[in-house]
Design goal:
166 residues
Length: 166
Protein backbone atom coordinates (compact mmCIF):
# COMPACT_ATOMS: atom_id res chain seq x y z
CA UNK A 1 0.00 0.00 0.00
CA UNK A 2 1.21 3.48 -0.86
CA UNK A 3 0.75 6.40 1.48
CA UNK A 4 -2.85 7.08 2.47
CA UNK A 5 -3.89 10.65 3.21
CA UNK A 6 -7.36 11.29 4.61
CA UNK A 7 -8.94 14.71 4.35
CA UNK A 8 -11.55 15.01 7.07
CA UNK A 9 -13.91 17.58 8.50
CA UNK A 10 -17.57 18.22 9.09
CA UNK A 11 -20.16 18.45 6.32
CA UNK A 12 -19.57 21.52 4.12
CA UNK A 13 -16.18 22.22 5.74
CA UNK A 14 -14.37 22.22 2.37
CA UNK A 15 -13.04 18.66 2.06
CA UNK A 16 -13.75 18.44 -1.67
CA UNK A 17 -12.17 21.85 -2.26
CA UNK A 18 -9.06 20.67 -0.39
CA UNK A 19 -8.98 17.43 -2.40
CA UNK A 20 -9.13 19.31 -5.70
CA UNK A 21 -6.49 21.78 -4.48
CA UNK A 22 -4.16 18.89 -3.58
CA UNK A 23 -4.75 17.34 -6.99
CA UNK A 24 -3.69 20.57 -8.73
CA UNK A 25 -0.52 20.74 -6.61
CA UNK A 26 0.67 17.35 -7.90
CA UNK A 27 2.87 17.19 -11.01
CA UNK A 28 0.81 17.03 -14.20
CA UNK A 29 0.07 13.54 -15.48
CA UNK A 30 0.90 11.84 -12.16
CA UNK A 31 -2.54 11.85 -10.52
CA UNK A 32 -6.19 11.16 -11.27
CA UNK A 33 -9.38 10.47 -9.38
CA UNK A 34 -12.90 11.63 -8.72
CA UNK A 35 -14.59 14.44 -6.83
CA UNK A 36 -18.26 14.81 -5.96
CA UNK A 37 -19.34 18.30 -7.01
CA UNK A 38 -22.48 19.86 -5.55
CA UNK A 39 -25.22 20.71 -8.05
CA UNK A 40 -27.83 23.41 -7.58
CA UNK A 41 -31.02 24.21 -9.47
CA UNK A 42 -31.43 27.46 -11.37
CA UNK A 43 -33.25 28.74 -8.30
CA UNK A 44 -30.23 27.94 -6.11
CA UNK A 45 -31.62 24.86 -4.35
CA UNK A 46 -29.29 21.93 -3.73
CA UNK A 47 -30.27 18.97 -5.97
CA UNK A 48 -27.37 16.52 -5.57
CA UNK A 49 -23.87 15.82 -6.85
CA UNK A 50 -22.10 15.30 -10.14
CA UNK A 51 -19.06 13.07 -10.41
CA UNK A 52 -16.02 14.85 -11.84
CA UNK A 53 -12.99 12.99 -13.15
CA UNK A 54 -10.07 15.14 -12.11
CA UNK A 55 -7.68 14.45 -15.00
CA UNK A 56 -10.22 15.03 -17.77
CA UNK A 57 -12.55 17.43 -15.90
CA UNK A 58 -15.46 15.47 -17.38
CA UNK A 59 -18.54 15.70 -15.17
CA UNK A 60 -21.56 13.36 -15.15
CA UNK A 61 -24.74 13.26 -13.06
CA UNK A 62 -24.11 11.01 -10.05
CA UNK A 63 -26.33 11.51 -6.99
CA UNK A 64 -29.65 13.29 -6.79
CA UNK A 65 -32.04 14.03 -3.98
CA UNK A 66 -34.69 11.32 -4.05
CA UNK A 67 -38.13 12.39 -5.06
CA UNK A 68 -41.12 10.73 -3.40
CA UNK A 69 -43.04 10.71 -6.69
CA UNK A 70 -40.50 8.57 -8.54
CA UNK A 71 -39.32 5.08 -7.79
CA UNK A 72 -35.85 4.34 -9.13
CA UNK A 73 -35.28 1.31 -11.32
CA UNK A 74 -33.03 -1.06 -9.29
CA UNK A 75 -30.81 -1.78 -12.29
CA UNK A 76 -30.14 1.92 -12.86
CA UNK A 77 -29.90 3.30 -9.33
CA UNK A 78 -30.24 2.68 -5.62
CA UNK A 79 -31.52 4.81 -2.77
CA UNK A 80 -29.51 5.60 0.32
CA UNK A 81 -30.92 7.93 2.92
CA UNK A 82 -32.41 10.87 0.99
CA UNK A 83 -30.34 10.30 -2.16
CA UNK A 84 -30.63 8.30 -5.37
CA UNK A 85 -27.26 7.01 -6.60
CA UNK A 86 -26.89 6.33 -10.31
CA UNK A 87 -25.21 2.98 -10.96
CA UNK A 88 -23.82 3.89 -14.40
CA UNK A 89 -21.40 6.58 -13.18
CA UNK A 90 -20.32 4.33 -10.30
CA UNK A 91 -19.56 1.46 -12.67
CA UNK A 92 -17.68 3.78 -15.03
CA UNK A 93 -15.68 5.23 -12.13
CA UNK A 94 -14.79 1.75 -10.87
CA UNK A 95 -13.55 0.79 -14.33
CA UNK A 96 -11.63 4.05 -14.57
CA UNK A 97 -9.96 3.34 -11.21
CA UNK A 98 -8.84 -0.04 -12.52
CA UNK A 99 -7.49 1.65 -15.67
CA UNK A 100 -5.73 4.28 -13.57
CA UNK A 101 -4.14 1.58 -11.45
CA UNK A 102 -2.55 0.03 -14.52
CA UNK A 103 -1.06 3.35 -15.64
CA UNK A 104 2.56 3.47 -14.44
CA UNK A 105 2.66 7.28 -14.77
CA UNK A 106 -0.15 7.77 -12.27
CA UNK A 107 1.28 7.68 -8.73
CA UNK A 108 -1.61 9.27 -6.81
CA UNK A 109 -5.33 8.53 -6.87
CA UNK A 110 -7.91 10.73 -5.19
CA UNK A 111 -11.45 9.71 -4.14
CA UNK A 112 -14.04 12.00 -2.65
CA UNK A 113 -16.83 11.18 -0.18
CA UNK A 114 -15.98 7.80 1.31
CA UNK A 115 -18.55 7.14 4.01
CA UNK A 116 -21.73 5.36 5.00
CA UNK A 117 -22.50 4.10 1.49
CA UNK A 118 -19.09 2.40 1.28
CA UNK A 119 -19.42 1.09 4.84
CA UNK A 120 -22.50 -0.78 3.61
CA UNK A 121 -20.60 -2.24 0.65
CA UNK A 122 -21.93 0.13 -2.03
CA UNK A 123 -20.59 3.19 -3.80
CA UNK A 124 -16.81 3.17 -4.17
CA UNK A 125 -16.38 0.19 -1.81
CA UNK A 126 -14.92 -2.18 -4.41
CA UNK A 127 -12.72 0.48 -6.00
CA UNK A 128 -11.40 1.52 -2.60
CA UNK A 129 -10.48 -2.04 -1.69
CA UNK A 130 -8.53 -2.43 -4.93
CA UNK A 131 -6.82 0.94 -4.39
CA UNK A 132 -5.74 0.02 -0.89
CA UNK A 133 -4.12 -3.17 -2.20
CA UNK A 134 -2.08 -1.16 -4.72
CA UNK A 135 1.21 0.68 -4.29
CA UNK A 136 -0.34 4.00 -5.35
CA UNK A 137 -0.59 6.97 -2.99
CA UNK A 138 -4.21 7.68 -2.12
CA UNK A 139 -6.14 10.74 -0.98
CA UNK A 140 -9.60 10.14 0.48
CA UNK A 141 -12.25 12.54 1.77
CA UNK A 142 -14.07 11.18 4.81
CA UNK A 143 -16.54 13.03 7.02
CA UNK A 144 -15.17 13.29 10.58
CA UNK A 145 -18.02 11.19 12.02
CA UNK A 146 -17.17 8.35 9.61
CA UNK A 147 -13.39 8.44 10.07
CA UNK A 148 -13.08 5.64 12.63
CA UNK A 149 -15.61 3.30 10.99
CA UNK A 150 -13.98 3.78 7.55
CA UNK A 151 -10.43 3.21 8.79
CA UNK A 152 -11.55 0.11 10.69
CA UNK A 153 -13.64 -1.44 7.91
CA UNK A 154 -10.99 -0.91 5.25
CA UNK A 155 -8.13 -1.73 7.63
CA UNK A 156 -6.34 1.56 7.10
CA UNK A 157 -3.94 1.49 10.03
CA UNK A 158 -1.42 4.10 8.89
CA UNK A 159 -2.50 7.36 7.30
CA UNK A 160 -1.76 11.05 7.25
CA UNK A 161 -4.69 13.17 8.42
CA UNK A 162 -5.59 16.58 7.06
CA UNK A 163 -8.32 18.27 9.06
CA UNK A 164 -10.37 20.92 7.27
CA UNK A 165 -12.20 23.48 9.37
CA UNK A 166 -15.04 25.76 8.21
Amino acid sequence: MGQVTIITGEMDAGKTTELVRRYHELPGGTADGFASIKVFSEQGAFVGYDLKRLATEKTVPFIRLSRPDEAPHPQDSFIFDRFTFLRGPLAAAEQAVRDILSDPLIRTILLDEIGLVELQGNGFCSALKVLLESDKDIYLCVNRKNLDPVTKKFEIAAYQLIEVED
